[in-house]
Amino acid sequence: MSWQHDKRTRYKDHKRRAKKRGIPWMITYSSWRKKWYESGKWEKRGLGRDKYCMARYNDKGPYSYENTKIITNLENCCEHRLTPEAKAKISANNRIVKIGNKNRLGKKHTVATKEKISKANKGKKPSLKNRMAVGAAAKKHALQRQRNTNGQFV
After folding, report:
1. Which residues, in sequence order, are CB contacts of 42 under 8 Å at separation 6+?
2. How many CB atoms lie within 10 A of CB 36?
3. In this predicted model, what pLDDT tens digit does every residue of 53-84 receive, in sequence order?
4. Which of 14, 13, 18 is nearest to 59 (CA)?
5. Whole-prediction pTM value?
6. Which has the closest alpha carbon to 26: 62, 67, 70, 68?
């Protein structure tokens, strides 16, 4: 992937995320690239508190050349304060995908149903993923028991 292609992709990703968050996008690709070039921080951008991002002044207004700056993620996080309206807008724009049976959320199985499920699963070999999860939970539980005996590891 060429350097130019990588920047174009990053620009499109940024624009898409802003749209999803309901923030107007008024910065062209060339202006966006110029902002990063002038900052000299392109190679230091990314995730993590000491990495750099493009942020709007006071998290208000559109993404435009005049209304953006390049700062660390930590600085952006510290000045980021969401109003209730902004939180509602973000929630409305985000599509939350729920996994599992949506019809049973918050409902408990009856004893008879639990017995039927248990009987249906008798003799079935658990998947590798399930076995790994059970093993990790057992190790965590054992460590907690050791810690709880006298407040420190045995």
Report:
1. 7, 36
2. 19
3. 999 988 889 999 999 999 988 888 877 666 67
4. 18
5. 0.50
6. 62
